[in-house]
Every structure is written in C-alpha cells, then in structure tokens.
Amino acid sequence: MADPKGFLSTPRRLPPRRPVAERVRDWNEVQVPGGLLPIVGAQAGRCMDCGIPFCHAGCPLGNLIPEWNELVSRDDWRRASERLHATNNFPEFTGRLCPAPCESGCVLAINQPAVTIEDVERAIVDRAWESGYVIPKPPERLSGKTVAVIGSGPAGLAAAQQLTRAGHTVAVYERADRVGGLLRYGIPEFKMEKRHLDRRLAQMRAEGTKFRTGVGVGTDVDAAELRARYDALVIAVGATAWRELSVPGRELAGIHQAMEYLPLANRVQEGDFARPPITAEGRHVVIVGGGDTGADCLGTVLRQGAASVTQLDIHVRPGTERPEDQPWPVHPKIYRMSAAHEEAQELGASPDADVDARLFSAATIRFEGAHPGPGGATAGVRALRLVGIDADGRPESGSERVLRADMVLLALGFSGPERDGGLIDQLGLELDARGNIARDEGFATGCEGVFVAGDAGRGQSLIVWAIAEGRSAAAAVDRYLAGSTTLPAPVTPADRPMVV
Ligand SMILES: Cc1cc2nc3c(=O)[nH]c(=O)nc-3n(C[C@H](O)[C@H](O)[C@H](O)COP(=O)(O)OP(=O)(O)OC[C@H]3O[C@@H](n4cnc5c(N)ncnc54)[C@H](O)[C@@H]3O)c2cc1C
Ligand code: SF4
C-alpha cells in the first residue's frame, strides 16, 4: 500500500470529458486526451490493499487490482503492465468499455466513492503501448496441433491469443470483412477508437495467429469439413440473434434493428462510405430499448445530426442510490448517465422526455405510418404510439402518447446465437434451455474436439466475460490437445455475475 492515508486524504476524481458541443461534431473518444495521466497516480493511491479484496469478486478475469494500484501509485508502469496482462489479454478494451463491476465491489464503496479501477487499468495499458512494453510474445516451440476459432469477437480473440502463445497453430475464421466482432461493428468509435483494436490485432498477427475474413462457417465452408481439417474447433460466434418487436406497423419503412444501423455508422469510420446508407440526419428518431445498445444508438444518432431523439425504456426509472435489496458488493441497478445521455441532456435532444432523452415505464403499442407510396412502395413510419405502464407491467389508463418518429431503432437485446447459419446443424450441436450452444463444465460440446466460448455459450453478456471465457476455453482446448495445461482458467461455464 503506497499511501496508507490515500483513501482518507484523496477524493475520487474522474478524468475530464471533452465539451459536448465539441465531441458531438466528431467520432473520437469523449475523454480529453492526456487528461487521465496527471490524476491517476493519486487515484490508485486511494486503494487500501484490502486483506480480502472484494474488487476481485466482481471481476471474472480475477484481475490483480490492488497489485497494479500499488505499482501505479509508485510510478512502476512496466511491472503494472505485466501484472495487468497476467490476467487480461485486452485491457485496453475493458479499460474503456467495461461497466466495472469491480468498482461496485470495492470495499471503499461501502461508505465512500470506489477506487477508479477502470481508469487505472486504461492508464496502465495506454502507457504500456506508448512505452513499448506491449510486444508480440510468439511461442518458443510449436506443438504441431491446429485449432480453428470461429468468430473474432473478444472471446474468439482471447482464445486465439492464448492458444497461439501455447504453441498451437491457430486460424480465426470470421464471416465479416474485418476482424473484431461487436468491438468492430457494434461498439461506436466514440466509446473505443478502433485503432486500439487494430494495434492488438497486429500484435496477434506477429505472434502467428492467422485471420481468414469473409468466411461464414456453415455457409461458405462446411463446419464438419473444418472440424476434420483441424485438431480442435472453438466456436465463438456470439449471441447476435436480435429480439423483435411484434406490434402493428413493424413492417413500415424506417424501422431498423440497432445492429442493422450501428455497423453502417461504424463503416463510415472505417472509410467504407462517406455517408451511411441509413442515417439519422434531420430525422425525428425514437430508440426502443433502454440498455447500452440503445445508448450507443443515441450517441450515434446525435453525431449524425438528428432533428430530435427519444429513448424508451420499459422499466421503471431506477433510483440514483444503491437499493437496499442490492447491497454491496453486487453491481446494482441504479440510474446511470452515459456519455451519450449527458450529450442528449445538454443538447436538449428530446421534446418528449424530461431529461437526457429517456422516457421510462414506456411500452410501444404500435407504429403509425404514411399511406403506401406509388406502385405499392412500403410506407414510412411517422409516429410511435406508447402507453405508460406500472411496476407490474400493467398499462396505466389515460397514459397513451404519440411520439413523432420518422426513424425508429430497436435495441431490445439478443436471444442467443443465430440458429439458421448451418454451423449448428453441420456439427450436430445441441442448444441449452436458454437457446445457447450447450457445453459441459469444460466448455466442450457433444461433438468431439469442439468447444464453445463467449456469448454463444453464455448468452448476451459483457466483454470482460467474453475474454474470461476465451481464456478458460483455451485452457480446456490445450488440455484436450496436449494432455495437460498451464493456461489459466478464470471462469467455468456455470459462473455468473454476483447478484442478489
Ligand atoms: C451495440 C453493442 C454495444 C455493446 N457495448 C458493450 C460495452 O460497452 N461493454 C461491454 O462489456 N459489452 C458490450 N456489449 C456486449 C459485448 O459486445 C459482447 O458481450 C461481446 O462482444 C461478446 O463477445 P463474443 O466474442 O462472444 O461475440 P461477438 O463479439 O458477438 O463476436 C462474434 C463474431 O462471430 C462472427 N460469426 C458469427 N457466426 C459466424 C460464422 N458462422 N462463421 C464465422 N464467423 C461468425 C460474427 O460476425 C462476430 O464477428 C455490447 C453489445 C452490443 C450489441
Ligand atoms: S476492494 Fe477497492 S480498496 Fe480494496 S483492494 Fe480492491 S480496489 Fe483496493
């Protein structure tokens, strides 16, 4: 513990964000560049180096948080980077994108603001890249065994890096034209600039991992044939089957799924289009769904120059304090203000919501549209009719409202992996009761030598869980191929986030 009184003398401080008016005119990350480093040493010094560090309990990776807090507060960045990378392949992703359940579990959070663990993580890894501490780590010798990883999201990438470093020859198959999964085409640039992903992929290529993009396994390549060509397969195809909103008017033009919309916006940043084929520019937009995907749509809609935007959440508005039935150290459901909500509030983006563009306890009844166009062309959406609901989901009388909407984005979550792509049938895989790909306690499916990692097996989750699953599945594959393993396995398929 570098500063025994740090938690008493130093208040929690977050790095500054760029002014809203400036940041909604570009796509760069919202933080002020260089704003974190001057404050992060003192923030890390707030850590009490607890005898039982509950921050560990919140993190599926088992991150060595008190160790790197102390190293940062002592200005020992090289060793901090070593300890950080000992448990996490991609801390630059989690340091930007994780909801930080470790901070909810921090012992300081019992009666004070938690240590800014996620900021410390980001500072360490950014500094490590700048200082040249992050270098390729190719294996010393090859095992002669081959592995195909299907899907290049955080689970597939973590599994591939672990297995490559263990000496196996690994090829990652990705149906999209670029590597990265939801990190590439789901998560917007203003939350994580893609240069961070590309830099990590360059490291992986230098270590020997091969990438085959534009190959859908099950459609372009038969999955059973692929199994026969490799000694093992890791399926990390995500849980990308989106939920629908089956209400009257759903067929109207201008209503899109979030994952039809966000990838196009991300492709503009990749240089594929000057203007996205679906854009919110000049539109009155309603986002249906109050989660993080909805917030990503919100930030994107604002940057595209929408005329107005409202986000609907079917849930009751949560309070700002931790509720009594969600005691420390669980990650509580509270009212959180993302950068996109901050932007919506400051810009007064919604004429229909009180603050920050959100309407809670709102259920969509139907979409209303213009008459069909000439020649039977699909009519466009003009409005969304909603009803207010009580805590039990019952409609409240007299609460119907009509919101102007000439574009609607559906962000209702995902029901599991896509079932119709051929992959599941060709390998004869089974689904579990929740519709995810079934696996045993060792990440293995019923098909010999085929393993499952990430959202495909767990269901819609978080990047930190995907990385933890990728690491653990890699350990299982290594044991299968080599008879034993020294690779770490931080989670089992049955592990779940801490809840009440
Ligand atoms: C819009 C959005 C924003 C999010 N923001 C956050 C966030 O801020 N923080 C956070 O922690 N989590 C966030 N999440 C959740 C997080 O992105 C996922 O939990 C995580 O990416 C899952 O990783 P994965 O590797 O299992 O799958 P994915 O990232 O979904 O990757 C699966 C990959 O497999 C490929 N694939 C699928 N089928 C095939 C096939 N047959 N052949 C070849 N390739 C195939 C897909 O193209 C995809 O690239 C967000 C999710 C969404 C949708
Ligand atoms: S729980 Fe908080 S104070 Fe304790 S070791 Fe972890 S980060 Fe430090």
From TrEMBL:
<keyword id="KW-0408">Iron</keyword>
<dbReference type="InterPro" id="IPR028261">
    <property type="entry name" value="DPD_II"/>
</dbReference>
<dbReference type="InterPro" id="IPR036188">
    <property type="entry name" value="FAD/NAD-bd_sf"/>
</dbReference>
<dbReference type="Pfam" id="PF07992">
    <property type="entry name" value="Pyr_redox_2"/>
</dbReference>
<feature type="domain" description="FAD/NAD(P)-binding">
    <location>
        <begin position="146"/>
        <end position="313"/>
    </location>
</feature>
<keyword id="KW-0028">Amino-acid biosynthesis</keyword>
<comment type="pathway">
    <text>Amino-acid biosynthesis.</text>
</comment>
<keyword id="KW-0411">Iron-sulfur</keyword>
<keyword id="KW-0314">Glutamate biosynthesis</keyword>
<dbReference type="InterPro" id="IPR006005">
    <property type="entry name" value="Glut_synth_ssu1"/>
</dbReference>
<keyword id="KW-0479">Metal-binding</keyword>
<dbReference type="InterPro" id="IPR023753">
    <property type="entry name" value="FAD/NAD-binding_dom"/>
</dbReference>
<dbReference type="GO" id="GO:0051536">
    <property type="term" value="F:iron-sulfur cluster binding"/>
</dbReference>
<dbReference type="Pfam" id="PF14691">
    <property type="entry name" value="Fer4_20"/>
</dbReference>
<dbReference type="GO" id="GO:0006537">
    <property type="term" value="P:glutamate biosynthetic process"/>
</dbReference>
<protein>
    <submittedName>
        <fullName>Putative oxidoreductase</fullName>
    </submittedName>
</protein>
<dbReference type="GO" id="GO:0016639">
    <property type="term" value="F:oxidoreductase activity, acting on the CH-NH2 group of donors, NAD or NADP as acceptor"/>
</dbReference>
<feature type="domain" description="FAD/NAD(P)-binding">
    <location>
        <begin position="395"/>
        <end position="470"/>
    </location>
</feature>
<feature type="domain" description="Dihydroprymidine dehydrogenase">
    <location>
        <begin position="42"/>
        <end position="132"/>
    </location>
</feature>
<dbReference type="InterPro" id="IPR051394">
    <property type="entry name" value="Glutamate_Synthase"/>
</dbReference>
<dbReference type="GO" id="GO:0046872">
    <property type="term" value="F:metal ion binding"/>
</dbReference>
<dbReference type="InterPro" id="IPR009051">
    <property type="entry name" value="Helical_ferredxn"/>
</dbReference>
<keyword id="KW-0560">Oxidoreductase</keyword>
